[in-house]
Write a structure and sequence with these properties.
The protein is an alpha/beta fold. It has 8 helices and 11 strands.
């Protein structure tokens, strides 16, 4: 782990004196190792690596069963025509989700060239290399998708709140946003404390209450909020308000 963080030194963002979620300056250090520091906000409880990384390391391919379970979470809703997977990498999720939604067109966006490989391999219809929060990409994808998924990626972005807003921008009115990320409020996280796995990795720990409040502020209806069995995570499905 130490080698990973030291190797990423050149990709570190500047140190922050304020919370990336709410802007509060009431920060305190929750965890410090020779590799990184985890700070927490005294106002909104958002925790984050400080300084963070500009680009986060590849986490590997998720298990197929987990991907299937995530895709099936959307079965209660009308089958989407178009779906954007954010942080898709090699499009492992769209590849599996096509088994559940065979008539859906899947696109993907990723900061690395892996997304172009995924399009060539036939896992995606369209591939976009870059950050979803890039203004040019956000404008290009505005209101194009029935579903936008951000799966175990939000907490590894430089600004998770802006990432949520960009994902909502890509949704059509009445579309659905599907989020999955580690749950710092889980019993497992409380039991393990500083040794809980997501606390030992770079990124953000976003409380469910913060995401719920942000989605409500952005005129979204929360459809489901559930804890997932895998990775001690939580899943939120929100519907964008109809115009």
């Amino acid at each position: 782990m130490t080698a990973l963080f030291h190797g990423a030194d050149l990709c570190r963002a500047p140190h922050r004196d304020d919370c990336p979620w709410c802007g509060s300056t009431r920060l305190r250090t929750r965890l410090h190792t020779d590799g990184f520091t985890l700070d927490a906000c005294g106002d909104c409880a958002h925790a984050f690596q400080n300084p963070g990384l500009l680009h986060y390391p590849y986490q590997g391919r998720p298990r197929r069963g987990r991907l299937l379970a995530t895709a099936r979470a959307m079965l209660p809703f009308p089958e989407p025509e178009s779906w954007l997977d954010v942080g898709t990498g090699e499009a492992a999720f769209p590849e599996v989700a096509k088994e559940v939604f065979p008539y859906t067109s899947f696109d993907g966006v990723d900061a690395t060239a892996r997304v172009e490989w995924a399009r060539t391999a036939g896992h995606l219809e369209e591939a976009y290399t870059g950050e979803l929060t890039d203004p040019h990409l956000t404008a290009h994808l505005r209101a194009r998708y029935d579903v936008v998924s951000v799966l175990h990626h939000l907490h590894r972005t430089p600004d998770p709140r802006e990432e949520v807003r960009a994902a909502l921008t890509a949704l059509r009115p009445g579309g659905h946003l599907l989020l999955e990320l580690p749950d710092p409020g889980s019993a497992f996280a409380a039991l393990l404390g500083r040794w809980w796995h997501p606390r030992t990795r770079p990124g953000h720990l976003v409380p469910r209450s913060n995401l719920r409040a942000e989605l409500a502020e952005q005129s979204c209806t929360l459809v489901t909020t559930t804890r997932c069995d895998f990775s001690r995570a939580y899943r939120i499905i929100a519907r964008k308000q109809l115009a």
